[in-house]
Hints:
Blueprint: H1 2-9, E1 21-28, E2 31-35, E3 49-53, E4 66-67, E5 70-71, E6 78-82, E7 85-89, E8 95-101, E9 108-115, E10 121-127, E11 131-140, E12 146-156, E13 162-170, E14 176-183, E15 189-196, E16 202-207, E17 212-218, E18 224-227, E19 240-245, E20 274-279, E21 288-294, E22 300-307, E23 318-322, E24 328-338, E25 341-353, E26 356-367, E27 374-378, E28 383-384, E29 390-392, E30 398-403, E31 409-414, E32 421-425, E33 431-436, E34 439-444, E35 447-451, E36 456-463, E37 466-469, E38 474-480, E39 486-492, E40 498-503, E41 534-535, E42 541-542, E43 547-549, E44 554-555, H2 607-615, H3 635-646, E45 655-657, E46 660-665, E47 679-684, H4 701-716, E48 719-725, E49 732-734, E50 737-739, E51 745-751, H5 756-787, H6 797-811, H7 816-828, H8 832-850, E52 854-857, E53 860-863
Helix pairs in contact: 3-5, 4-5, 4-6, 4-7, 5-6, 6-7, 7-8
Amino acid sequence: xxxxxxxxxxxxxxxxxxxxxxxxxxxxxxxxxxxxxxxxxxxxxxxxxxxxxxxxxxxxxxxxxxxxxxxxxxxxxxxxxxxxxxxxxxxxxxxxxxxxxxxxxxxxxxxxxxxxxxxxxxxxxxxxxxxxxxxxxxxxxxxxxxxxxxxxxxxxxxxxxxxxxxxxxxxxxxxxxxxxxxxxxxxxxxxxxxxxxxxxxxxxxxxxxxxxxxxxxxxxxxxxxxxxxxxxxxxxxxxxxxxxxxxxxxxxxxxxxxxxxxxxxxxxxxxxxxxxxxxxxxxxxxxxxxxxxxxxxxxxxxxxxxxxxxxxxxxxxxxxxxxxxxxxxxxxxxxxxxxxxxxxxxxxxxxxxxxxxxxxxxxxxxxxxxxxxxxxxxxxxxxxxxxxxxxxxxxxxxxxxxxxxxxxxxxxxxxxxxxxxxxxxxxxxxxxxxxxxxxxxxxxxxxxxxxxxxxxxxxxxxxxxxxxxxxxxxxxxxxxxxxxxxxxxxxxxxxxxxxxxxxxxxxxxxxxxxxxxxxxxxxxxxxxxxxxxxxxxxxxxxxxxxxxxxxxxxxxxxxxxxxxxxxxxxxxxxxxxxxxxxxxxxxxxxxxxxxxxxxxxxxxxxxxxxxxxxxxxxxxxxxxxxxxxxxxxxxxxxxxxxxxxxxxxxxxxxxxxxxxxxxxxxxxxxxxxxxxxxxxxxxxxxxxxxxxxxxxxxxxxxxxxxxxxxxxxxxxxxxxxxxxxxxxxxxxxxxxxxxxxxxxxxxxxxxxxxxxxxxxxxxxxxxxxxxxxxxxxxxxxxxxxxxxxxxxxxxxxxxxxxxxxxxxxxxxxxxxxxxxxxxxxxxxxxxxxxxxxxxxxxxxxxxxxxxxxxxxxxxxxxxx
Length: 864
């Protein structure tokens, strides 16, 4: 790697290291490439992908003149006149085509894009490695929404072509109202029809030509509270009903007396306390319920199953605890009741080497049929490669697991060769093919085929409500819960009505219940179940970039983005709260290391939790009035401390040792009466590249921000402040000025707490806390900026100046409220002031698109 970088640094020709299009191709890995070969590397290489722009390369399919009566845009500039205005347009700078190679062989997938005269995509054409194709054509309205989409497809050159027409209808707010689909010459099917509330949330969905009418309910915060929740007592022709409870508990607090210390309690942090559900799979299915218990880090400790006919059956229970890194230490799991007693499926103890699972020990009887396949005793050692990928798992019979350069499993070898799995991927990481014995599954966009060596045994087209089964010529619709888990799959009966094909209920960590829910054997090729991820024959769930093991509650390998976060084990699934969170593709954290806040995956810490973490459980404790002493921090003093810290000054209350700075808060220094309340803090200061990703509270300027927020708060807010006006003959003295009845309005202060130690502490530690923040900015953050402006800990000098000015201004009393507003937004709003501005603009654009003239105010919305 160093050698290659040196070569790039010393290039003397084509120093920009770019390519130009060429009419004469060079051939690499079986593909003709219409570029020059001037960019590094020019020698031996494996070509993985090629992208084209501006023009359609040789070998492209012929560009259609029109697509669904819409003129296409070409490479040659054309003058287009619209509403009296003329402009010259072409596909210059637009992507036109791409090729992606399979990693395991030299087969290629190609795709090409056609545009209308407004530069909008109206058509695509792609060829798959089997020789088949997928072609799409779209009809767009003025705003760019698709009104109709036509798809033409064949698996290979000998397959019968399939045609699909999708038609979309929108309501006056431009929300999708109806989605129709037609397969070949079959009658058009109304896949879904939506009704919304005033917030744009779906309140009702009719599926399959009104085969099912599904109601959705929300609480005042906009959180989903139920799917057909009013039908839990009697399903009323509904196939599935589901209720989410956050801050209420209706079931038993402790349904399993084996764990008297674990109690189901209401959650007030957005967590889920209970879920109820009922299905129509049987004639008189009982109400089923899970009650959840969490630890102080919001990790799931237990999922207690209850059934209306016997709430204390102890069936289908999971109980976990964790190490400090968030790895599961022990897991106890029960199954269905056998002879009146819940089967103890698993009593597992995990042993680790770092975060890697070394082996499992079964303390109970164990079994190889359900749960983790291990009998009583210690399991065998699990192997790993240098990248942290699991390379063997002998407890499950996997003797070797090999990976490609994307850390995706290419072959999983089983002691029974019939269970050996092989995978083929495109270079972009998408799965192209899976092979198990004579059975081959091809993944071709939204189409999925299973070939048994003789004929295609399964052909499936996925859609948002389920899928179309070409072999059985039927639509299969699916009920999903709040996590996207497939709960009930059903289809239309011949002659009317519905029939349930499959029911799926899950333990919290994703293992499917056994003993009472089964599936139609003609329906077993579509295995997208928990989180709507594909269940593999080895029991793992394929999320895309990693495989998840629901029997162990862990991933098979490292998170690609593991270096961007330090808060939990890179093998832990969604920070051990699978009741609330979903991993989208095996990389739960964003590229910048922040937590996914897409709405599907809520973040770790609520604003209230952050407030308590940084300010303490009772932040009003710690402040004081002049009666107990303190600093008069204005004017000359403020300027002096600003220059003092900016020029590298230090404070005696701070200790520096081995690149760490430490200080104390929560009590007055040297005061024995409050020593037990003091809290020690330590922060690492380093300019080494290895530590640049730690972020302290990235970016590091927020170290100053948070400390200044804390300091301003402690110095001033233990007073109750209100607006007052001086009355005649009743003057007030405020900040050295005596006011009489002259109409002057000012802030009045009254101490809330009259505790000597706490008040003195606030007055002393407020400026100290601000001072610590200033030191962090100028002593480390600005130096990081000078070393590397792109470092996550870099602080621009002007930002440091602004932080310091606002911190000192806040200590003056007059600037308390503005300073707290500045630091509060910078500390607790994602992305600080920049994030607030970006979010505000995004929300305003979305709202205005729905309701013209809608203005989003900083703390609410109004229509003008």
